[in-house]
DNA sequence: AAACGCGACAACCGCTCCTTG
DNA sequence: ACAAGGAGCGGTTGTCGCGTT
C-alpha cells in the first residue's frame, strides 16, 4: 500500500514545545475534547503536525499523568510485563495507570536495561523462563 | 573554571494497523 | 474486496543538566 507521508517538514514547527503552545493545545482539548489529530493543530492555532500534538498531549499534558518517581513496585511490574509482552510499550503502559508508553520505554532503555544486564552478569542462571507464573495485576 | 562524559527525557521518524468510503 | 487516509506504536536521535576529571 502506498502511503502519503503524514509528516511534512514544510512550514511546520518542530522541536521543543513552548509554554504558549502547551497552553493552546491544552485549552483546545479541554474545551473541544479529543478529536481528529490531523485537523486539531489547525483549529487550535498551532503550527505543528497532528502527530506532534498527539505525542505532546499523551506524554506530557494529559491531566491524569504521573511523572517521574517510578516506584519499586512499578519498576518490578514493568520488568515482569516486559518478560511477558516484550517491547509492547503501549500494552505495558496500559497496565500502569498514569504512565505513558514513551516514559516506560525511556525508563527501560536508560535505567532498567542496565540494571537487568548487570544482574544477569551477576547471576546468569536467574534469567527468564519463570515469567508466565507471575500474576500481573490488571488495572482499569 | 573549563572540558568532557553520561544519564535522563522529550521529540522525531518510519512503519504498521485500523477505519472508512 | 480494495485503496486511501488517519491514528498509533516502537526505535532512535537530539538536547540538556549534572557529576567528574
TrEMBL record:
Localization in the cell: Nucleus
Domain HTH myb-type: 9-61, 62-116
Presence of keyword Transcription regulation: yes
Recorded GO CC terms: nucleus
Family annotation (Gene3D superfamilies): Homeodomain-like
InterPro entries per UniProt: Homeodomain-like_sf, Myb_dom, Myb_TF_plants, SANT/Myb
Keywords assigned by UniProt, alphabetized: DNA-binding, Nucleus, Repeat, Transcription, Transcription regulation
One BP annotation, GO: regulation of primary metabolic process
Residue ranges annotated for the Myb-like domain, each copy included: 9-61, 62-112
SMART domains found in the cross-reference section: SANT
Molecular function GO terms recorded: transcription cis-regulatory region binding
PROSITE patterns linked to this entry: HTH_MYB, MYB_LIKE
Protein name (record): Myb transcription factor
Organism of provenance: Rhynchospora pubera
Amino acid at each position: 500500500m502506498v502511503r502519503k507521508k503524514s509528516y511534512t517538514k514544510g512550514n511546520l514547527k518542530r522541536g521543543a514545545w513552548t509554554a504558549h503552545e502547551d497552553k493552546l493545545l491544552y485549552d483546545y482539548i479541554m474545551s473541544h475534547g479529543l478529536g481528529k489529530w490531523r485537523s486539531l493543530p489547525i483549529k487550535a492555532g498551532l503550527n505543528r503536525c497532528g502527530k506532534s500534538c498527539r505525542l505532546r498531549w499523551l506524554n506530557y499534558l494529559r491531566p491524569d499523568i504521573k511523572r517521574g518517581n517510578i516506584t519499586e513496585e512499578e519498576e518490578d511490574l514493568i520488568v515482569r510485563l516486559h518478560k511477558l509482552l516484550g517491547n509492547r510499550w503501549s500494552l505495558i503502559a496500559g497496565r500502569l495507570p498514569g504512565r505513558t508508553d514513551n516514559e516506560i520505554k525511556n525508563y527501560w532503555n536508560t535505567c532498567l536495561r542496565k540494571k537487568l544486564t548487570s544482574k544477569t552478569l551477576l547471576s546468569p542462571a536467574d534469567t527468564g523462563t519463570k515469567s508466565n507464573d507471575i500474576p500481573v495485576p490488571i488495572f482499569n
